[in-house]
Design a protein that fits this description.
Length: about 300
C-alpha cells in the first residue's frame, strides 16, 4: 500500500500531503492525536473518500477506480464497528465469507476457526446486540480476517478487550504476519504498538512527522537516556570504572545495589553492560531504560522539539 503526496482538503482543514508506504510483512503502528488525520488517511487508503490531490495505491490498484479489486485481499476493522446486531457472530461471518467468495467446506471451516481464534466460539449463536463492547471488537477483527486477506487495516483493535485477550490478539497478529500478511495498526496504546510493531508512522496536524523503524524513533526524539540496573549486591569501584568505559556510556552513578547509567541517545550498550556485570561476578537482577521512552519520544514529536 502507498500514499504518494495524498491530500484531502476540507476547506477549513487540510490533511496532507501524506507520503506513506507499507511493505509486505511489516506491522506498522500508525500514531497521532485525535484530529491529526489518521482516520482521513485510512479512509483515503481504503477508497472511502477521494483524495483532493496526490495518489493512493492499495494492493497495486486505485481504491477509487478499482475499488473491488483493491479491497479483494484487504481486511478492515474500524474503531467503532457498526455490525448487524440482529445477526449472530456465526451468521455474520458466514455472510462475510460468502461475500468474499467462500462456499462449501471452505466456508464451513472458516467461521468456527475464526470464532475460536478471537475467543467467541461459545457465543457463536448469540445475537450481536447481546454481546459486550469487547466481544463486538473481537468479532470485528474476526470479520476483517475472513478469507485470509494479505493486508489488515486495524483501527484501535484492542479497545475494550481484557489484558489476557490483548496478549492473545498480539500473538494472533504476529502469526498472521509470519504467514505472509501485513498490518497497518492505528492505536493510542503505546505499549501495544511497542510490543507488536516493527515500523512506525506518526502524524500530527495533517502531516507525517515520522516514518521508519520503531527502534529508531526513540533515539530521534529523546535526549540522553538512562539505563537502570539492579544488582544482587553493592557495585564495587572496579565495575563502575569498567562500565564507564563502555562505548556510548556518558556517566555511571552507583547507589547501593542500583546503578544509573547515562548513555547517548544513539547508543544501546545494554548487551555490553550485561556482559561486563556478569563477567565481574556480580548478580544482574534487572536492567532496562528508566522511563517510558516511547511515550516521551511521541510527546516530543508532537511538540517538534526534544526536552
Amino acid at each position: 500500500m502507498a500514499l504518494d503526496g495524498a491530500v484531502k482538503d476540507y476547506g477549513s482543514k487540510k490533511i496532507g500531503p501524506i507520503t506513506l508506504r507499507v511493505e509486505s510483512g511489516e506491522i506498522v503502528g500508525f500514531l497521532g492525536p485525535n484530529g491529526s488525520g489518521k482516520s482521513t488517511t485510512i479512509r483515503m487508503l481504503l477508497g472511502l473518500i477521494r483524495p483532493s490531490s496526490g495518489s493512493v495505491r492499495l494492493m497495486q490498484s486505485d481504491p477509487i477506480r478499482q475499488h473491488e479489486k483493491a479491497l479483494a485481499e484487504v481486511g478492515y476493522s474500524p474503531e467503532l464497528p457498526n455490525l448487524q446486531t440482529f445477526l449472530s457472530p456465526r451468521e455474520l461471518l458466514d455472510l462475510t465469507g460468502r461475500l468474499r467468495g467462500l462456499s462449501g467446506r471452505a466456508l464451513e471451516s472458516e467461521t468456527p476457526r475464526l470464532l475460536a481464534d478471537v475467543g467467541l466460539a461459545e457465543y457463536e449463536g448469540y445475537k450481536i446486540s447481546k454481546l459486550s463492547k469487547g466481544m463486538v471488537q473481537r468479532l470485528s477483527v474476526a470479520q476483517a480476517m475472513v478469507g485470509s486477506p494479505k493486508l489488515l487495516v486495524l483501527d484501535e483493535p484492542t479497545i475494550g478487550i481484557d489484558p489476557a485477550g490483548v496478549a492473545h490478539f498480539r500473538s494472533l497478529f504476529r502469526d498472521f504476519v509470519q504467514k505472509g500478511g501485513t498490518i497497518l495498526l492505528s492505536s493510542h496504546i503505546l505499549s501495544e504498538v511497542e510490543a507488536l510493531c516493527t515500523g512506525l508512522a506518526v502524524i500530527h496536524s495533517g502531516s507525517l512527522v515520522y516514518r521508519g523503524e520503531l527502534q529508531k524513533f526513540v533515539p530521534t526524539w529523546v535526549g540522553a537516556r538512562t539505563i537502570s540496573v539492579e544488582l544482587g549486591g553493592p557495585a564495587d569501584d572496579a565495575l563502575v570504572r569498567a562500565l564507564s568505559g563502555v562505548r556510548g556510556v556518558t556517566g555511571v552513578k552507583a547507589s547501593g545495589e542500583k546503578l544509573l547509567i547515562e548513555v547517548s541517545k544513539e547508543a544501546d550498550p545494554r548487551g555490553e553492560i550485561s556482559k561486563l556485570i556478569v563477567g565481574s561476578g556480580a548478580r544482574l537482577l534487572s536492567m532496562g531504560y528508566s522511563r517510558d521512552e516511547l511515550q516521551e519520544a511521541y510527546v516530543n514529536s508532537m511538540r517538534g522539539t526534544i526536552e
